[in-house]
Amino acid sequence: MPVLEPTQEPTRVFALRHGRTAWNRTLRIQGQLDVPLDDTGRWQAERLAEALADEGIEAIYSSDLERALATARALAARCAAPLVAERALRERAFGTFEGVTYAEIDARWPEEAARWRRREPDFGPGGGETLTEFFARCLGAASALAARHPGQTIALVAHGGVLDCLYRAATGLGLQAPRSWQLGNAAINRLLWHGEGFVLVGWNDCAHLDSPPEAAVVEAD
Predict the structure, then answer these.
(1) pTM of the full predicted structure?
(2) What HEC string does 151-184 produce?
């Protein structure tokens, strides 16, 4: 894990997953399809914004997909911070897997599904990104955005896959390591960034979602 030098001014980063969508609930792969928040997701976005209202966020960068942008807009309204849409923060492009449930992927493409579940770095579903390509895109975009704000606090509003990449970068875990951490919708994740990379501060804080209108934390990206 990177170690901060005392002379460096880190960027404080809130890495946030969008609120829930109907496809999250039914374990259907969204990828870069533009699926909106459901009612619970909109409630989560408002609670997230309330929880971060006094954190001194000075800039918000969001994936340009509507589920992330809607979450970011709620935050921007509470923080009075500028919001910029960034295509590079989109979810992984899943190609032929997009719009299909996990169970359907296993049934229709068993060999491809096995490679995906093994997290093979050079595998990409038909027409989609490989894990290696996706990781490079996410980490490059997040690092470039954080580098603009030394000594400041920013929010990156994105997707489960993007946050997975940032967690791995901050902890030094390889792309093929099994996921053992949560990626809750609208959870608060805290990182520091300096010139050498990201440092993990806190992960999957869901205290602001303690009384949801219905169960809302799922794993689908």
Answers:
(1) 0.92
(2) CCEEEEEECHHHHHHHHHHHHCCCCCCCCCCCCC
What CATH code is assigned to 11-209?
Answer: 3.40.50.1240
Tokens matching residue 217: 């934390």
Asked about 18 being catalytic, the answer comes back as yes
Our answer to whether residue 91 is catalytic in this structure is: yes
Which of 5, 58, 66, 91 is an active site residue? 91
End-to-end CA, the chain: 25
Instruction: Report how far residue 143's alpha carbon sits from residue 132's, in angstroms, rounded to the nearest whole number.
Output: 16
pLDDT tens column, 74-90 = 999 999 999 999 999 99
DSSP 42-65: HHHHHHHHHHHTTS---EEEE-SS
The encoded tokens of residue 157 equal 């509003």
Say whether 27 sits in a helix, a strand or coil.
coil
Q: Rounded to 5 degrees, what are φ and ψ at 195?
A: -60, -20
Q: Which of 18, 149, 159, 194 is catalytic?
A: 18
